[in-house]
Amino acid sequence: MGLFKLLMPREFLEDLSDLDIDKFLKAGKDFFIFDFDNTLGLWRSCVIEERFQALLNRITQASGKVLIASNGRPRQISQEGVQVIWRARKPLAGKIKRALLEQNVDLSRVVMIGDQIFTDVLAGNMLGVYTVKVRPLSTREFFGTKVLRVLERIVIQTVKKGDNGEV
Questions:
Q1: Beta-carbon contacts of residue 51 (< 8 Å; ≥ 6 apart)
Q2: What is the mean pLDDT of the chain?
Q3: Residues 6+ apart with CB under 8 A from 134
Q4: Residue 140: pLDDT above 70?
Q5: What angle (nearest 5°) sits at the alpha carbon of residue 133, between those of residues 2 and 94?
Q6: What is the domain partition of the chain in residue ranges?
């Protein structure tokens, strides 16, 4: 069950817009790491969805920090006050950990949000941060990701059965 625990987020959201920023800020979590493709923007896009720009602005206006960590190729994203790591190599957490260490960020303050269990959630759980899994924005994605989506569903169903349906 240890591996399954590493794959399970602390929280599931149907839509990133439902992310309760105030809840996290009140709990002392003020550093937010977001995946990009199919979390903040469409796959291979360089545009953060307009409805999520307001969410990122709320974080930075509340003195929170935002880091985008994407496995995708470098692209130009224009969002003020946001640091971006391209080719992050998730689930390996080395690049993300290095960025957090450089900024002296206490891991208890970090929330990692993404649409994939085998990259975003696994990396976040290996770092020891609070993880949130959101439903992907689109079904258009890399072929390998489509394969992992099947495994994702199996993992989620298996863990839910083991916990009497509660995650």
A1: 17
A2: 85
A3: 12, 13, 14, 15, 16, 19, 39, 113, 114, 115
A4: no
A5: 65
A6: 2-162
What value does the mean pLDDT take over residues 49-53?
87
Q: How far is CA 157 from CA 13, 125, 129, 152, 161, in A?
A: 16, 19, 23, 9, 6
The larger pLDDT score, comparing residue 94 to residue 153, is at 94
Q: What is the DSSP annotation of 75-104? A: -----TTEEEESS--TT--HHHHHHHHHTT
The β-bridge partners of 34 are 68, 113
C-beta of residue 155 within 8 angstroms of C-beta of residue 162: no
Question: pLDDT, tens digit, for every residue of 115-130?
Answer: 988 899 999 999 999 9
Q: Confidence band (pLDDT; 50, 70, 90) for 164?
A: very low
pTM above 0.85, yes or no: no
**Class of the CATH domain delimited by 2-162:** alpha beta
Q: How many residues are present in the chain?
A: 167
Helices (H) and strands (E) in the chain, counts: 6, 6
Across the strands, what pairs with 69? Answer: 85
Asked if the model's pLDDT at residue 139 lies above 70, the reply is no
Q: Which two tokens stand for residue 16?
A: 């990133």
**CA 164/CA 15 separation, integer angstroms:** 24
